[in-house]
Inverse folding.
């Protein structure tokens, strides 16, 4: 082989290896520890969970849909103030934790008030990853998950 052929073969092999590695870096998301405290009224409810990303690329939770409400927003708490946000980051090889006093989902204008023991189906939408359906169990209003 001449020098040009050897160089072309080396570049092709290197490019193939680099591109093959790119596929492994996509977000790999799983949802754990989901719950919704039983709402006190039919006006609003909150939901909490953890999105675990075992992939090498970050993603963002951008929206949530559910039959329970048409008005579901993403919130974060800064100090003692709650703020609506357009997305919540899911870090590469990390977690997005939604919990009381921090980031959470806010359901407004519920179609019905879910009772303890029921499950609410939600679909989480991300900037990159495919949507994930989650069955969120309704817990007692005073429920606090074990750490």
């Amino acid at each position: 082989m001449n020098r040009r052929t050897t160089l072309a073969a080396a570049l092709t092999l290197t490019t193939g290896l680099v591109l093959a590695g790119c596929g492994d870096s996509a977000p790999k998301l799983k949802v754990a520890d989901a719950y919704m405290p039983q709402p006190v009224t039919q006006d609003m409810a909150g939901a909490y969970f953890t999105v675990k990303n075992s992939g090498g690329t970050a993603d963002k939770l951008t929206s949530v849909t559910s039959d329970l409400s048409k008005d579901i927003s993403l919130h974060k708490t800064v100090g003692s103030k709650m703020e609506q946000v357009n997305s919540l980051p899911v870090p590469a090889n990390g977690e997005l934790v939604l919990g009381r006093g921090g980031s959470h989902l806010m359901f407004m204008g519920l179609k019905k008030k879910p009772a303890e023991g029921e499950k609410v189906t939600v679909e989480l939408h991300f900037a990159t990853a495919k949507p994930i359906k989650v069955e969120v169990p309704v817990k007692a209003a005073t429920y606090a998950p074990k750490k």
Summary: Confidence is low (pLDDT under 50) at residues 5-22. The chain is about 15% helix and 45% strand. The two ends are 63 Å apart (CA to CA). The CA atoms of residues 123 and 133 lie 4 Å apart.
